[in-house]
């Protein structure tokens, strides 16, 4: 099923839902995470509260999820944007796949997203606001993203 990322600058990006689509649109500040590892810590780090995080490393979830790597027990981010998710993690301590963990906490994740293009669009903005949605907004609806800031 298709999902969309709409930026407050007017650009939209199409991807695919890896998780169940959210019941309503998810709005938040969009930020980049450029690390090759540490996605488990990002999920539970309170500094990412209510943020939509774009992970620029090409594949995420290859180690799965272990309960002993969390900086806090519950996730804080509002949504995830990735290029590709690993469907079969290979770590001896893995307890969940990334997808299973996100589904458990109702955190939406879009995959097959052009994270390089997204990062180029938002990296020089002081604060970028975005919406994760199941619908392709019309231009008039994009103003609601701008109004959120």
Automatic annotation (TrEMBL):
<protein>
    <recommendedName>
        <fullName>Carbamoyl-phosphate synthase small subunit N-terminal domain-containing protein</fullName>
    </recommendedName>
</protein>
<dbReference type="InterPro" id="IPR036480">
    <property type="entry name" value="CarbP_synth_ssu_N_sf"/>
</dbReference>
<feature type="domain" description="Carbamoyl-phosphate synthase small subunit N-terminal">
    <location>
        <begin position="1"/>
        <end position="133"/>
    </location>
</feature>
<dbReference type="InterPro" id="IPR002474">
    <property type="entry name" value="CarbamoylP_synth_ssu_N"/>
</dbReference>
<dbReference type="Pfam" id="PF00988">
    <property type="entry name" value="CPSase_sm_chain"/>
</dbReference>
